[in-house]
Amino acid sequence: MTTTLTRPADGDGSVQVHQEPGTKIEEGALVIAVYGKGGIGKSTTSSNLSAAFSKLGKRVLQIGCDPKHDSTFTLTHKMVPTVIDILEEVDFHSEELRPEDFMFTGYNGVKCVESGGPPAGTGCGGYVTGQTVKLLKEHHLLEDTDVVIFDVLGDVVCGGFAAPLQHANYCLIVTANDFDSIFAMNRIVQAIQAKAKNYKVRLGGVIANRSVGTDQIDKFNARTGLRTMAHFQDVDAIRRSRLKKCTIFEMDENEEGVKAVQEEYIRLANNMIHNVEPLEAVSLKDREIFDLLGFD
Questions:
Q1: pTM score, two decimals?
Q2: Which active-site residues does the annotation give?
């Protein structure tokens, strides 16, 4: 894969990693990119959403796009090797690899891939994501997939880690009901606005996470044109499921809060299949967010 840096029309002065035709995911699959502030619970949310799609009979692939490669361990119950690790072992001769070398089957048949990333301070995460998609296509692993979920590193929206937006139909933003999370969400909305000029990606909505209320999220949504697609309160069973290295669907339904969380994930998955509408949200200036949020 040849990566070229150019100045495209997706943001004044921006320098982006552009998608090669050979790395494009074919039409037909529902492709979702999950973003949000670092530590907000994107991997837990992505894995539980993947499990929910599988419960609806969908063939699901989750791609972790973080050097920590911890996106899928609640699905696979282990830390799996990354695409970059495996490619390094064969001196980047991808033709020597078999699908089982880099793709692993998790809970309820969900396929799991960890793209990994370059060492800190080197390389480009977008290049790694592109290499991962290219490898999946070379082995025809995207042809029998109904849903692809990209779980993306933190709230980084540089040209590299915005690369999953080039493949996605929709972006879901995970946020808490606090200033820092919503501030990060606004930056992600800005990135979607830029990418939507040249790619098919659109905002799908907001997932409120670890929050009893949503009053601040509601304020932001009303001003920007976003909507909340799901709301998960700070339920201890979600925290414990991660410690048990499993999805919420593997927890005892009789435990407090488990059934309600499971039902909310199923509702979210159903809505993403049948009821989602692309949003034309408009980001705010930093000062506008500062003035909007909080209490008088």
A1: 0.88
A2: 37, 42, 68, 155
- Inter-axis angle of helices 215-224 and 179-195, to 10 degrees? 30
Number of other CB atoms surrounding residue 80 within 10 Å:
22
What's the pLDDT tens digit per position in 227-258?
A: 999 999 999 999 999 999 999 999 999 999 99
Amino acid at 124: C
Go through the domains of the chain in sequence order and give each one's CATH number: 27-292 (3.40.50.300)
**Which DSSP string corresponds to the chain?**
----EE--SSSTT--EEPPPGGGPPPTTSEEEEEEESTTSSHHHHHHHHHHHHHHTT--EEEEEESTT--SSHHHHSSPPPPHHHHHHHTTT-GGG--HHHH-EE-GGG-EEEE---PPTTSS-HHHHHHHHHHHHHHTT-STT-SEEEEEE-TT--STTTTGGGGT-SEEEEEE-SSHHHHHHHHHHHHHHHHHTTTSS-EEEEEEEES-S--HHHHHHHHHHT--EEEEE---HHHHHHHHTTS-GGGS-TTSTTHHHHHHHHHHHHHHHHHT---B---PPPHHHHHHHSS--
Mean pLDDT of 184-191: 91
Matching residue, tokens 């080039």: 166
> For residues 166-177, b (16+ Cβ closer than 10 Å) or e, as one string?
bbbbbbbbbbbb
Whether 175 contacts 185, CB under 8 Å: yes
Q: How far apart are CA 188 and CA 113, in angstroms?
A: 24
